[in-house]
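TEACHING EXERCISE
Course module: macromolecular assemblies
Task: Read the component lines below, then compare them to the predicted structure of the full complex.
Student: A.B.
Group: 4
Components provided:
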Amino acid sequence: MKYYRQIQVALIAALIVITCLWLFSCDSFTETDLPKTQLIKTAVFQDVKTATAALSDCYAQMRDYSMITGNSDGLSSLLGNYADELTYYGVSDSPLQNFYNHTLLPSNSGVSVLWNSSYNQIYAANAIVEGVDNSTAITGDNRNRLKGEALFIRAFIHFNLVNLFGDIPYITSTDYKTNTMISKQTQADVYNQIIADLLEAKELLPETYTSAQRIRPNKYTVSALLARVFLYTENWQLAENESNAIINKTAFYQWQDNLDLVFLKDSPSTIWQLHPGVAGLNTMEGRTFIFTSAPPNIEAISPELFNAFEAGDQRKNHWLGSVNDGTDTYYFPFKYKLDTNSGTSQEYSIIFRLEEQYLIRAEARIHLGKLAEAKNDINKIRQRATLANTTANTSEELSQAVLQERRVELFTEFGHRWFDLKRTGKTGTVLSVIKPAWKDRDNLLPLPASELLANSHLLPQNQGY
Amino acid sequence: MKNNSFYKGRLAFWYLIVFGFLISCTPALAKTALPTLPSSTQQNQISGIITDGTGPLAGVTITIKGQQKTTISDFDGKFTIRASPNDMLIFSFMSYKTLTIPVAGRTIINIEMHQDATSLQEVKINAGYYSVKESERTGSIAKITAKDIEKQPVTNPLAAMQGRMSGVNITQATGVPGGGFDIQIRGINSIRTEGNSPLYIVDGVPYSSQSLGFSSASSGILAGTTSPLNGINPTDLESIEVLKDADATAIYGSRGANGVVLITTKKGKTGKTKFNLNAYSSFGTLTRTLDLMHTDQYLSMRREAFSNDGITTYPSYAYDVNGKWDQTRYTNWQKELIGGTATTNNLQATLSGGSSGTQYLLSGTMHKETTVFPGDAKYGKGAVHTSLTHSTEDGRFKINFSANYTADKNILPPSDFTYKAAVLAPNAPALYDANGNLNWENNSWTNPLATLNGRYTATTAALIANTLLSYQILEGLELKTSLSYTDNRVEENRINPSTMYNPAFGIGSERSTLYLNNASSHSWTMEPQLNWLKKIGKSEINILAGATFQDQKSSQLAQTGSGFPSNGLIYNLAAASRLNISSNSFSEYKYQAFFGRINFNYKSKYILNATGRRDGSSRFGPGNRFANFAAVGAAWVFSKESFLDTSTFLSFGKLRASYGTSGNDQIGDYQFLDTYDVTGNNYNGVIGLQPSRLFNPNFAWETNKKLEIAIELGFVNDRVFLSTAYYRNRSSNQLVGIPLAGTTGFSSLQANLNATVQNSGLELELRVEPFRSKNFNWTSNFNLSLPKNKLLEFPNLESSPYANRYLIGQSISIQKVYHYTGINPQTGLYSFEDYDSDGQISSPNDQQWIEDTAPNWFGGFANQLSYKNWSMDFLFQFVKQKARNYLYNTSWAGDMVNQPIAIGNHWPVDGSNSQTQLYTTGENGEALDAWSSYSNSSATISDASYIRLKSVSLSYTVPTKGSAINTARVYLQAQNLLTFTNYKGADPENQSSFFIAPLRQISLGVQLGL
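Instructor-supplied answer key:
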């Protein structure tokens, strides 16, 4: 019994020792297991399925937010209003109205949404490139496909950015320390990187599609963008080569003669389209553009575009819809026919299609002196619209004819009209007539004011703003 | 990442085993280690009766000086104890003067005890890990006790604190049962709105204040999510202490930055078994309603609007003026939709008692409450509270077990009727048709009562259980361990059946929706502590060392289902044709700390208190997990100095000061990990994953440096007691999203920002006892807080997303709005100051007018009066502040919504000083633009100061002498009885156009003690 005192002391000492031990091992106590409902980045890229989910999210983001989205935040709407394709009818003082009126300020929220969501999507693409490169589990074809698609996405978004904003930073990593103070690069440098990324993507991607509906880019999708890039950079021969590669791949891409079938999900002329998401949904373009009562809610086809169609052009009948409110008739883009859900989805949003490749090739061929062949390409487009063959003969006339066909063929598709006017130096002559507020500065969008404040290396602001 | 959970668990396991073994040895140890004193002299049985001059005094502790022997007086004041003729007996009882009486050979000793004049200074204040005498306190601690809580018929413990504590600003968000409260202890410290909650500790157990609710289910009715504090039953509480300064909060380290709320539940007391029954019923109605236009005023506004817009033929949808609706009809919609009476019934039964070794308390509460809305909404709550205390005969080993279990069920309409009641046209049709069915008046309106076909139901259960073991190893050295467990569960659902819509629209159950939320959180905490007390001459040293280990796991599954085959199956998620999982989360929070306190006390005159804590939290990345917090506090009781000792005027004087740090880790779990989230974006059947955030593992705690200087003065035997404190808290290292260039892919990065928010202020508490006599007593307590909030630093504020919200040198509750300059006499439209002189009123350049909505000062004035068997308590609460008024949320004048009568003062009829611009139906674009700027202008922020008779209680103690009943008390209580305010809106406290204001409750109750 007399040892109790000692036992007691020993126990207390043991307690204190254990407490101390615990204190020294405290780092391990405060370490928690990994969250069960999120994935660690490294784990995402240890499995093709989760890596694919990350890539799929990029497409979903592109479909739903900014640049190529079909809603009114996307280029189809913004640049349609900015150029001469659409007339704005929505609420006053909205970012979209500022595009329409050419009263853009550096603080315009539409502009900053374009900028920020684009770089957010670029971040996600870079994360895939880095994740796949560092992955030990994703190899071979899987690796090539994921990386190739991510490089394609990165190049595509930068391509749109450089055309909208001029000199921009080309982001190739996820490191915020570098990216937050990054400087602008010249347009030529940006294009060089776009081309380098696309050439790498072309090497990595297979010819075949990963799914039946062409909802993920293949090698030819990369070619389609390359053709456009070479067109914009006036590398005529390379542009012709790329478009040739697609047009000659008749096993994949066939001409669709029926104008009403061009924008269906199974159209054989589609090179790349975005899946609408949930089964039964159709395109955002349909929901944005189609209206059933007048005056329209947001926007309608402008009189300039309406009058640009030649008499007898079937595209006017098939691709424009109309609503009459008793006094006036309002027209809307009716390429996509569905503005509601259907049992199964009928229409997907088409980003690249064969017709554009014919027009790219025609333009390239004009500059390469292959006038007759160029004329054939133009007529291919005109014939489907039941128009007579073009009467243009000289390279000047043919260039004009291509521009006209691009206008009525590719209208309200991601700002083709604006980019065409810009790259051919016609913005001022065409738009100053119909936009009273037109200024030369409008060739480029302003850099978002908040971005200039956040990163002084982006200075100077684009000229005139 | 290393995952060695077993290793961690094993240590805990060993710890428990060793401690358990130690405890199991204690009775044996106690017997042998402490030899009983040899009884040198013969002992006699001594008995007596203790009275307070008027009646017997139960519960008085009688000890023999220098011995362990203790007894307690029974209910009749009787006691017996064995003592030697030479012994000294010590009689002690809380708030009474302790008496030391020599036995002097007597066997019967009758004693009369008297209340201690300075007793309040002797009261022990709970400071969490330790308790201090009020007079020797170095920190800033405010307290309310069961006495104050019981006098208010409230369901949330925070409600009982309103107006009673300086520096603590509490507002009730909605008058609906189960709704939320907002508490700010000494202002807003964090720029993150979600990072400003205090730490709640219930009986030593950290209680998560994070709501488990799903806002899609509850936000329409509860003004947010369900309040976790509903899990604490106010009538089971003994006291609530609020720790405010560094001296008091530094020992809570990383979680003390926003103050600590210590909640202590009731415990059994030694004495005869007591059964106590308390029942009350209460009726709740609205305190204030808006003065809205009557039909004639409303219709004339509408007609004028049409004529202003040049419309002569009323359009088909203008039912109110085009003849479709009866233009002589008038309904007071506020009376109809929110003017009901809410009833509350509360019943509590308590059994308590105990011997000197074991005390117990068992209590059960039933609570039922309805709302002022039409329909059958009801709230029910059941709470069980148990407390068991045992100590060994020698008093060295003690165990206290307490458990609180609260379950409640809240059935409410899916949305609040307050806004509808304010905007419905006064000549809108009747709610029911002749057959008693919902009237849709030929589809010309949306019947508000259709909402009642929807329903919000929340079931919550909360368990807080704690075991506190303590063992006195040596004289003055005590080992304590607290082991506790909490479990919170919420099951919420909201149904939107198709019957909520007009049947004419042909909407079927394919549009019915169910929102469902299942969430739970459980945690265990272990806190071993060692406390050493040593007296050396006239000094006393008290050293405390301890550690905390806490592990909390939370999970949530929130789902939305829509498209049901029938409304009868709406609660069955399996029947939904579309299912969307809004959130499926699981998180774990682990927390560990080592804390200590050294208190040095010289003659109760000079007191030095140093506290510190080393904290580790799993919410931060490796390398940033640990941080140190410390504070030092000092007090000088100068009234004990010889030069003041004899002063009869100044009875007490103390100067105290403290400085130190505490932190804030409320940022959510796993933020430092580089993760991918499920976005729910579907792409060809693949659900997307996207990077959650920019990866920054390097963020760390928010730190709050707190300084306080206070003086406490008691005059005339402390009958006038004044305490004044100045505090200055600087919260820096703000954990916010730091703005980044968009080229990073994100707009911000979770990181520490070098911004500093300062909260400073003056707090004043005055207690006066104008009367103190045998029959009549009157005590007044007055408190006043003058807070000031200021943003001291914010690098690159101009380029941050906060540029339009904050200004250096201004409060962080400012709003930058347009400056309303009156009606433009040319256009008849609202006009504003054009700050950038560009001829346009546009955001953000013209939103330069600054209004601060933080309170300028607030306080309370409480009085307790008692005369013989009667007692009366009342509390006035007052706040001086500005707030958004009704103009912020009402539509433009002339629209098809009702307006306050004041809006009727308009241009051009009432000239350029009119309240309201030109009426328009909405056709006048310029008028709409002006109205839209007006809604966000200085005109919509106005005085919202108020004085409110927050609580009144009148009670009568029925004389029960000679009956079986020991005590009987009847009481009448009222909450929010009167409100004096100039506020333009319904209620200056919740300031909401959408949620019902706190109700005026009048209750009648009875309390019986057997």
